[in-house]
Amino acid sequence: MLNKYARAFFTRVLTPFAAFLIRRGVSPDTVTLLGTAGVIAGALVFYPRGEFFWGTIVITLFVFSDLVDGNMARQMGRSSPWGAFLDSTLDRVADGAIFGGFALWYAGGGNDNVLCAVSIFCLASGQVVSYTKARGESIGLPVAVNGLVERAERLVISLVAAGLSGLHKFGVPGIEVLLPVALWIVAVGSLVTLIQRVVTVRRESAEAEAEAAKAAADDAPQRPTEATS
Ligand SMILES: CCCCCCCC/C=C\CCCCCCCC(=O)OC[C@H](COP(=O)(O)O[C@@H]1[C@H](O)[C@H](OP(=O)(O)O)[C@@H](O)[C@H](O)[C@H]1O)OC(=O)CCCCCCC/C=C\CCCCCCCC
Ligand SMILES: Nc1ccn([C@@H]2O[C@H](COP(=O)(O)O)[C@@H](O)[C@H]2O)c(=O)n1
Ligand SMILES: [Mg+2]
Ligand SMILES: [Mg+2]
């Protein structure tokens, strides 16, 4: 949903910055790599210590690089299979660091085994949700569904809640409940999305098999029947 409705807005806002980086000779791959490094650092330095406000600020500064790199590649007319591969692969690494950071906090100072497990579930299910689409497309299916909670939703829900929960350390009472609520929402939403995508791939592969069987039957040489032989 966000990918559909917010992307156009962010493209307009980030295009001048992307053009500036191009003029400075920066490559899209450099932006992809530095952006991912910044997200990993923000997530793994701050979140395991319960520093959710500062961790989210650092991650937010870098996560938008994921929209800038593609924008730069398109402006330069240099969108490439390698760039698409690098972008998607490093998305998985960045997501692993964010939800891994939450899990480390709940396994340590946050001292909550259930929320640790929910964070690990968010991490794993998010990766599998993305994998279903990538694998489905690699076997030639359209995978014509995005589902309830795509990557942009997973990030926005988790990061907004983490940033606000972090205000607890600045004296805002009760607000720390937002992160657990967000993690449960992302976990359930990712499960629903996973089911939506698997059902779609199952339907599309059954349709493709039926079409292939029909094409094979149409192409098969007509066997003489007993009556004509
Ligand atoms: C006192 C206040 C404290 C608050 C602290 C600060 C709060 C700031 C919080 C959050 C900011 C969150 C920003 C998150 C931005 C996410 C941008 C992003 O990277 O989106 C990526 C997404 C997908 O890009 P790709 O096409 O490169 O990725 C594909 C995707 O990953 C596929 O995965 P799948 O979906 O299948 O699971 C893969 O299959 C594929 O391989 C891969 O290529 O990009 C978009 O979707 C574009 C839309 C981005 C929309 C961003 C909306 C940001 C909205 C609000 C942010 C501001 C909120 C501020 C709140 C402040 C609260 C007080
Ligand atoms: N280093 C890169 C990064 C991305 N691309 C291209 O952009 C597409 C992704 O666009 P986003 O707006 O989602 O970042 C990707 O599929 C590539 O075609 C690139 O070429 N090099
Ligand atoms: Mg990108
Ligand atoms: Mg990306």
UniProtKB/TrEMBL annotation:
Q: How does it sit in the membrane?
A: Multi-pass membrane protein
PROSITE patterns linked to this entry = CDP_ALCOHOL_P_TRANSF
Annotated spans, Disordered:
210-229
Q: What UniProt keywords apply to this chain's record, in alphabetical order?
A: Cell membrane, Lipid biosynthesis, Lipid metabolism, Magnesium, Membrane, Metal-binding, Phospholipid biosynthesis, Phospholipid metabolism, Transferase, Transmembrane, Transmembrane helix
Q: Which residues bind Mg(2+) 1?
A: 66, 69, 87
Describe cofactor binding as the record notes it: Contains a di-nuclear catalytic Mg(2+) center.
Active-site feature positions: 91 (proton acceptor)
Cross-referenced InterPro entries, in alphabetical order?
A: CDP-OH_P_trans (IPR000462), CDP-OH_PTrfase_TM_dom (IPR043130), CDP_ALCOHOL_P_TRANSF_CS (IPR048254), PIP_synthase_PgsA1 (IPR044268)
Q: Which cofactor does it need?
A: Mg(2+)
| Residues annotated for Mg(2+) 2 binding in this entry | 66, 87, 91
Q: Which reaction does it catalyse?
A: a CDP-1,2-diacyl-sn-glycerol + 1D-myo-inositol 3-phosphate = a 1,2-diacyl-sn-glycero-3-phospho-(1D-myo-inositol-3-phosphate) + CMP + H(+); 1,2-di-(9Z-octadecenoyl)-sn-glycero-3-cytidine-5'-diphosphate + 1D-myo-inositol 3-phosphate = 1,2-di-(9Z-octadecenoyl)-sn-glycero-3-phospho-(1D-myo-inositol-3-phosphate) + CMP + H(+)
The EC designation for this entry is: 2.7.8.-
Q: Give a short account of what the protein does.
A: Catalyzes the conjugation of the 1'-hydroxyl group of D-myo-inositol-3-phosphate (also named L-myo-inositol-1-phosphate) with a lipid tail of cytidine diphosphate diacylglycerol (CDP-DAG), forming phosphatidylinositol phosphate (PIP) and CMP. PIP is a precursor of phosphatidylinositol (PI) which is an essential lipid required for cell wall formation.
Q: Which family does it belong to?
A: Belongs to the CDP-alcohol phosphatidyltransferase class-I family.
Q: What is this protein called?
A: Phosphatidylinositol phosphate synthase
